[in-house]
Each structure stands twice: as C-alpha cells, then as structure tokens.
Design goal:
Structural class: alpha+beta
Strand content: 15-25%
Number of helices: 13
Order of helices and strands: HEEEEEEEEHHHHHHHHHHHHEEEEEEEEE
Number of strands: 17
Largest sheet: 5 strands, antiparallel
Strand order of the largest sheet: 9-10-11-15-14
Radius of gyration: 29 Å
C-alpha cells in the first residue's frame, strides 16, 4: 500500500528532515564542557605568592577522573615545566593534586587542566598564579586543551545514534510482545537495524572515548583504548556490549527452542536485560552526579524506558499501519493496546521528567536564565505538541475499535473528518485507518524533535550547576569550614574586532558586606596577560534597585585594583565590567556574584 496525499508527503518529509537534524546539526555541536565546576584552587587563581608553592590543588564540585595528561604548567616564558603525576587527595575524589618543581622563579605561571567529571563529560580550563610579582607572558598561544572538533563531532553522532537505536530496539520489541500484531515478520528489519546500529555505535563510542576525553584526534583511538577500558564510562560501554551479545544469544535460543522456553521466563529475562541496558546510559550522565543520585538513577532509567517504549513503538506502529491493506487486516486490539501503553509511558514521563527538571534546574530563575532551562522549555513545548498528536491518534484508535453512528459522525466531523451521511451506518473503517496513519506519522515527527531536545539536554550544563559556576562554585565569602575566602570570577569578552577578545578575571576579597578589595587581570586571546587602556568595574543589586556602584579600579602595572570598596548589603549582585581595548572598541560584560554578611 502506498501513502498518498500532499499533507502525508509533507509530514514524511518533515520526519526525514528531523532525522537529518540529529546527524548534521547535533553531530557538529560542541557540548557544554563544564558539567563539574572548579570550586577553588591552592594557590588560588590570580594570586601573588611570596614563596613558591610545592604543590597545586584543585577542588571541584563533584568527583572527577584524571587523565594521563590532566595538568600542564607553563613558566613565565610559556615553557612547559616537568611535574609529578597528578593524583587525588586522600579520601577526596573531587580534589586533584599535582607536585610542582622546586625553586620556581619569579613571575606568572599558567596551569592548563583537563579532567573528566562524574557525568562522563570532559572539563577543561586554566588558571594562573604568580611568585613574587605578576609578569606579562610572551605572546605565545598555549596548546588547545578544549576540544578536537572532528573527534567531538564523531563522538556526538555516535552518541545520538545510540539513543535512537536504543529507542528503536526496545520500543519495537515491546510493541511486538504487548500489542501482538497479526504478523511480526515486518518488524524484524526494525529490530535488526536497532540492534546493529546500537552495536556499531557502542564500539565507536568505546574507541572514541579516549580521544574525546583527551581532546585529541580520532587517530589516537587505539593508543588510548587501554586507559579507556579502566574508566567508568569505558566499563559501562563494555557492559553495554556484553548485554547486547547476551540479548542476541537469547533471541537465537528463543527462536530455535520457542516451545521449550516458558513465556513468562522469557519476558522476565528480556525485561531485566532492557533495564540493565538502559542503566548503561543513566549511570554515565547527569543522574550519576549531583544530589539524590540513587533516586536520580531510578528516575532516569524509567524515563529512558518510557521514552523507548513510546517513541520506538511509534515506529513499529507506523510500519504496521503501512502494511495493513485495510481495517480488517489490522485487529483493533493492536492500536488499542498501543494506545494504553503510550498513555502509561506519558504518565511515567511526566512524573520522572518533573523530578529531573527540578533536580537539574535548582531554581525558577534557571528556567530562563540558563541554556539548560531554555532547552527544557523547548522540550516542554514539543512534548505538549506530542501529547496533542497522541490525543488525536487516540480519537481514531477509539473509532476503529467500535462502530461510529450518526451521532458520533458529528463528533468526528468536528475533529476534522470529512462529512458523511447522517444515516446510522458506520463510518468507513478504511477512512478511519487513513486518518490514523496520518496522525501517527505526525506524532512520530514531533517525537523525533523531542528526542533531539532530550539528547541536547544530556550534553548541556544543568541549571543548578550553571548557577554554581556563575557564583564561583558557591556563595562568595565562604570557604572551607566557613572561613572567609575571596570570590574569583572569570568573564569572557569579545568586542567583535580582531584581537578584541579575551577574559577578565576579577577577585573580590572577602566578598562580604562591608569593605572589600577588588583586583582584576585581563587576559588576551593567546591566554597571556594583556594590557588594555581602560577597565571599569561596577556592582548592581537589581532586587533592591541599587547601583551601579563604581569600584574605581586603577591600573597598577599589569593588573587593575581598588584597595577599598564597600558593599552595603548581602544578595546576588551583578558585577559589570567594561573593557576598552582600543580608542574606539569596548564591550561591557556581566556576571552574577553572591555576597553574604
């Protein structure tokens, strides 16, 4: 049977375009690289020490994994120093230590670091400290420690395809078992495509994991494989491969010994394998870090299973409807059963999605003030459209399940069905089947968009963590055991002109109500200290309509400072920095900072 009609062709084209979007747009996108935030360091970023430190300590917001080359230290001339091997502080998986060479000379040292956060995403950054005095480093660009675009693109494509393959495999299997179409042979290609795609993407992720973490080219895949299989993400990928092999062996056994294997035992084994397979995703993403990890793991696993059953089942239902020559060839129980399982999936998705949204956002402000919140809003809008499409499908599903008389004809006409006779004769089942095909296709098209946004969320810094990063990893002015500490904030800027980008690092000490000192250092596009003709820093408190309060920082020869600046009250202040890089080019950037009593 061929699908006809201009609207149908448009919907099918939209579905194809959405699938292409997954591969092209998302595959080339670079995910957020700050899922764990740097809470502090010793020496602190931007400080000037009288004596050279013997070791460097970095403390993160969650446990981190160390790479073979996690830390690189450069002297004032941008020459890399030989350092000891990095390791964790005893009993603290969120703290990394590095032994520094003895007798460091005077000047500014740069530390480039790269670790892996608990949710498996690489985290990179840089900081500086000075011995004796601050010095300007030569204009020599430091090696890029962020991302290799080719590796990141390939890794993202494999990761998104793995999500799609998982949904297709589990959803099709659930549809075949629960909805029981009269013939299941047509579902075999979907199962094979899902299984082989998931197997191939898992192998690709395992090979690319090392270069992805290190930020190197894909050619280093085999060189880093030995290290990859000893990490938690690598172990989870190996477990996924093992589960796929076990599932394949079980399917072959069931095919040859179907009459000797009890149905209940087979279904129980399949359910256990599906849950274990889904756990290999939830245990390596946002659920594995942050607050309430056990509850988050259970919620994420249920969320993924419900998504797979619904969206993968939609693909199976589409294929089943396409093969049905008429309504008599498709028993009503098939669509009514899928309607029930889809409704159950929606309930699970709403409950688990609400919890995950609260856990990821942390505040209402993060809903519109962070990338995570804005993508979440887009997903909620798409889910609303998906629910409307699903409700439309349920109308036609119910119509197929029972005859429709003249009274129900008027209801269907109001829903968009073509006008029919007022005689108490049933509406043509073939017509209902046609409209059901179209509504399910529309539902599938929107479902692909939902899956795209879901995968985007997994690679975006959660709103709760983003707010911590914006305030320097916690409330300013509170350090270990409540000891007052400085608030160090780094704000990138870009005037839009050649050489007009960089970052300004502002230290507010102690970051409490009352007298404070302000110090600022400007870094150029090469990562070295930069000299700018003017820098202005002001503070505003929007909630009290207070400010701007000018700090009146002055150039102290390599850095800017104000010895005394008073903050009158606590709250979340907006720190506004205006950087002028030439006679005509300047830019104003802002960042929020928390001030306590």
């Amino acid at each position: 049977m061929r699908w006809r009609g201009a609207p149908y062709g448009v919907l099918r084209g939209a579905l194809t375009a959405c699938a292409a979007l997954v591969l092209l747009v998302l595959g080339a996108a670079v995910p957020a690289s700050a899922h764990a935030t740097l809470r502090g360091s010793d020496p602190a970023d931007g400080t000037v020490l009288q004596r050279a430190p013997r070791e460097l300590t970095l403390t993160f917001s969650e446990s981190v994994g160390l790479l073979t080359d996690s830390f690189r230290v450069y002297d004032p001339r941008n020459h890399r120093l030989r350092t000891g091997e990095a390791g964790h502080a005893p009993g603290h998986s969120d703290t990394a230590r590095l032994t520094l060479p003895a007798r460091l000379g005077k000047g500014t040292y740069t530390v480039a670091w790269r670790v892996v956060s608990a949710d498996s995403h690489p985290v990179s950054g840089a900081l500086t400290f000075s011995v004796g005095e601050r010095t300007a480093t030569p204009v020599t660009a430091l090696p890029d420690r962020t991302e290799n675009q080719t590796t990141t693109g390939l890794y993202n494509i494999a990761r998104y395809l793995a999500y799609l393959a998982m949904a297709l495999l589990l959803g099709t299997a659930a549809f075949a078992v629960y909805c029981r179409p009269p013939s299941r042979g047509h579902l075999r290609p979907l199962l094979l495509v899902g299984a082989w795609t998931l197997l191939g993407t898992t192998l690709a992720l395992l090979l690319l994991r090392g270069p992805y973490e290190e930020g190197t080219a894909p050619s280093n895949a085999f060189a880093t494989l030995a290290h990859t299989v000893t990490t938690r993400p690598g172990e989870l990928l190996l477990l996924r491969l093992l589960l796929l092999l076990v599932a394949a062996a079980g399917a072959l056994t069931l095919r040859h010994w179907r009459r000797r294997v009890p149905r209940r035992a087979a279904l129980t084994t399949a359910a256990v394998l599906a849950v274990a397979l889904t756990l290999t995703w939830s245990a390596s993403d946002h659920a594995s870090a942050g607050i309430q990890v056990p509850v988050a793991l259970a919620s994420t696993t249920l969320h993924l299973l419900a998504t797979a059953v619904w969206l993968g089942g939609l693909a199976a239902l589409l294929l089943t409807l396409r093969r049905a020559k008429d309504a008599q060839a498709l028993p009503p129980r098939v669509v009514t059963r899928f309607s029930r399982v889809a409704l159950t999936s929606v309930v699970v998705l709403v409950i688990t999605g609400t919890y995950q949204s609260w856990r990821g956002l942390g505040s209402w402000q993060a809903l519109t003030g962070t990338s995570y919140g804005r993508i979440l809003l887009a997903k909620l809008a798409a889910v609303t459209l998906l629910l409307l499409a699903a409700a439309w499908s349920r109308v036609w599903t119910a119509s197929l399940a029972r005859p429709v008389t003249a009274e129900r004809v008027r209801v269907l006409e109001g829903a968009g069905a073509p006008a029919v006779s007022e005689a108490p004769e049933p509406v043509s089942p073939s017509l209902m089947l046609t409209y059901l095909r179209r509504s399910v296709l529309a539902e599938a098209a929107v479902a692909v968009v939902v899956l795209v946004l879901t995968t985007l969320l997994t690679s975006t810094l959660p709103g709760r963590a983003a707010e911590e990063a914006a305030t320097g990893g916690g409330p300013a002015g509170t350090g270990v055991a409540g000891i007052p500490s400085a608030s160090v904030t780094t704000i990138p800027f870009d005037t839009g002109t050649p050489g007009g980008r960089g970052k300004v690092q502002i230290t507010l000490d102690p970051g409490r109500v009352g007298p404070n000192s302000v110090q600022a250092v400007v870094y150029g596009p090469d990562g070295g200290l930069a000299s700018v003709p003017e820098l202005r820093i002001a503070f505003l408190l929007p909630s009290r309509d207070l400010g701007p309060l000018d700090t009146k920082v002055t150039n102290r020869g390599g850095y800017w400072a104000a010895s005394t600046f008073s903050l009158p009250m606590p709250g979340t202040w907006t720190m506004r920095a205006t950087v002028r890089v030439s006679e005509l080019d300047q830019v104003t950037v802002e960042r929020r900072v928390r001030v306590v009593r």
